[in-house]
Amino acid sequence: SCHSQEGLLGLQTAVKTAKPAVRKDKPAVKEAKPAVKIADKAFIGQGWMWAAGVAGLLVTLFVSAAWGWGREGGSLGVVLPFSLIIGGISAMVLGATLTVAAYVMLSAKHQVTVRVPPEISALHALISNVRCDAESSLPTRHGAVISRKIDSAINELIDGFIENDVIPWYKNLVNETTPSTEALRSVLWYSVVNINERLARMDHVRFVTGGAVNCLTRHLEHIKIAQVAGEARGERGIFHLVPQLCSPERERNFLRLVAEMLISRCLPSEYSRCTPLRTLLKELLACKVFEPMIDRVCDPDWINQQLVSYLRQQHAAEELHRRTYMYAASYEDFITLIHDSTDIHDLEHLRRNIINEIMQATAINNLKKAKGVDLSRESTPQGSGKGDLLQ
Hints:
Blueprint: H1 2-24, H2 26-72, H3 80-106, H4 118-137, H5 148-170, H6 178-200, H7 204-232, H8 248-266, H9 269-273, H10 275-297, H11 300-327, H12 331-340, H13 344-371, H14 386-390
Helix pairs in contact: 2-3, 5-6, 8-10
């Protein structure tokens, strides 16, 4: 009894000791279950193969023996080697076929699993978070920012930029361009609103009288000093560029700083916090927007062309005004000329002229009223001409 009690205690101790090990080995047991199933299937397949081989061999021996009894009177010495070879080959083929069939029937359904790298999953999560933050910070609707006409002009400018400079190359990269272009339009409007708010908080009088005038005065003083120094040496002038313009690379670096400052001040905070996107926008603004714009504006030939174009437009507008009033002998002819015109600029110019004449006629009538002139007798036009009708 003592020995049995000691054995019972030892068995209990062994069971208690083995329980943690069993708990620790549960994942290993779970991982080993598929291997056990595969081994069972392989064992079953091997059994099927041996059974098929033996069956094929027996069938071959039976057939060969029957054939031998018919030819040689029951002698198996002639056909036995040949029958063994044929039986072995048939047993192998039949056994392999049955093994494959049994493995296919007993195996689970095939499932294709694609392992996505963790870096790709992290990138998708980052993009989704950034997109949600950006959409939440941008205004979905906006009212009049500056004025109705200026907002309409800015909207046309943004639409032209997207249609001409973004969609031609972006449509080859994506199937649907509408979501991206709408997001870009929202970002541009956000920048316009932000710039307008900052300009509204600026002291314009102090900027013009204190900042712009002082900078222009210093610039003219430097030009005068350079001319005097050049005349003293017999030269045309000695001008020294500012450090930011000493070389094209230093100019681009300065423009990059300006672009980075504008990105951090005018765009949403999500863009400034994203380093790759901030760098890309900085390079685009500095090298593709600011540098070509400065080169164009500082080109004397371009300035002269713009002046000549403006003067030609003014001259053409004056000629149109004189021709319209010259050939329109009556009010009906004047209306006909307006209806037949197809140039929007000409129509806008005519509209401004008509408004100016109406305002002038109203001012003259107000002066006559102030002088006490009775306007009731002069309300009816004296003639049918256009000038009489407009008075």
